[in-house]
Amino acid sequence: PYRILRETDLREYLAGLPAIVAQLGGAPADWSISEVGDGNLNLVFIVKGKSGGVAVKQALPYVRLVGESWPLPLSRAHYEHMALVHQARLAPDLVPAVLHHDGPLALTAMQLLEPHIIMRKGLIGAVSYPRFVDDISTFMARTLFFSSDLARGAAERKEGIAAFASNHALCKITEDLIFTDPYRIAEQNRWTAPYLDDTAAAFRDDLDLHVAISRLKLKFMASPEALIHGDLHTGSIMVTDSETRVIDPEFAFYGPMGFDIGAVIGNLLMAYLASAGHERTPGERAAFEAWLLDVVEGVWTEFARKFLALWRSEASGDGYPASLFTGEAGAARLEAERQAYMARLFQATVGFAAAKTIRRILGLAHNIDFEWIADEKQRAICEARALKLARSLMLEAPSFTTIATVTYAARELRHW
Ligand code: SR1
Ligand code: MG
């Protein structure tokens, strides 16, 4: 039965699992165990033994950030486990290996990622990651393409959609915290007051913005394009110089692909606009910020290139039946349609990137890119630039036709 595990219970529990005992080595009494979770929802333990380590994640029956007053189903651990299995099949070197899962305890033991750090922290420290573009674009292209109607038959897809349909409590968090609350008075909203009071009020009064965010909300709710990670921000990515691992897919469900791609791009743009508030030498700042915008461009360009390559070579799904696109004319028409599909996906990506940015500045759950800027006025300046960028990305999405137009707008706002 479910119980919240403390250090002693966890030691005893893990000692009964031969695979974990083998991984850790030494006597259970000598294992070091510490709870290190700094996310919004769960407990995370790092366990180290004589010869190895494991990371153990246990869902709490409530939102950790808020407390017991906000209950949240334990079933999210089940969906996270299913998503990890799916991702491990398609991108094995880009997620942590699962060593053990316990449904009733809502617990998963995984390979300990060491010396990886949370990418968001690395970016705050102006560290660049040479593998990131290639790895994250592979992760997204493969996990999204191979769960779409371009790659899978209709029946299999519908089974997949059904298997994740009950992860709706996690979807509801996104629907409220990203697509609704930042645009209305909500008890849990917060921002850098008093500097952003007027901007927050303007966002609450802006009907154009309310239409745009509602269109995105509907797209999120009613577009089961692929099995998405659902929370793919830079706090869900662990990195070293030579490795990238995507963690924490508890928000996974069949949703719009642009929500994942937009999450990555939106969070990189926030890291870019937060950079002015963190201590760096001028040379370090210039080089790091230039690198970040190159990465934004690379993420989209490489994703699109890899996704299209998969579509051209591995399309065995029920969408776009090959029998309808025969001969030279058919092939040319299908290729034109692929380009049109990518243009629509890019529009959605831009919109979701904007939505992800606004929620981190005006909503409940903020990010340390901005929060760790100690000088509140400086923080508000950085946040105001990000809000201005996000507002124009959301309202003028059709005028952003290439990723270079997005990075150009970010660069223009950097000194606003
Ligand atoms: C109350 S949960 C707030 C946020 O934490 C998670 O990481 C998701 O981003 C969610 O929206
Ligand atoms: Mg998370």
Structure write-up:
With 416 residues, the protein is an alpha+beta fold. It folds into two domains: 7-111, Phosphorylase Kinase, domain 1 (2-Layer Sandwich), CATH 3.30.200.20; 117-413, Aminoglycoside phosphotransferase (APH), C-terminal lobe (Aminoglycoside 3'-phosphotransferase, Chain: A, domain 2, Alpha-Beta Complex). The chain has 15 helices and twelve strands. A five-stranded antiparallel beta sheet has the order 1-2-3-7-6, with helices on both faces. Strands 8-10-11 form a three-stranded antiparallel beta sheet. A hairpin with a 4-residue loop joins β2 and β3 (53-59). α10 packs across α12 (327-362) and α12 packs antiparallel against α14. 44% of the residues are buried. The model has no long low-confidence stretch (mean pLDDT 98). The structure holds 5-S-methyl-5-thio-alpha-D-ribofuranose and magnesium ion. The site of 5-S-methyl-5-thio-alpha-D-ribofuranose has 10 residues, from α7. 5-S-methyl-5-thio-alpha-D-ribofuranose binds at residues 39-41, 63, 65, 173-174, 177, 231, 365.
List keywords for this structure.
alpha+beta, globular, Aminoglycoside 3'-phosphotransferase, Chain: A, domain 2, binds magnesium ion, 52% helix, 416 residues, 2 domains, 12% strand, single chain, binds 5-S-methyl-5-thio-alpha-D-ribofuranose, five-stranded antiparallel β-sheet, Phosphorylase Kinase, domain 1
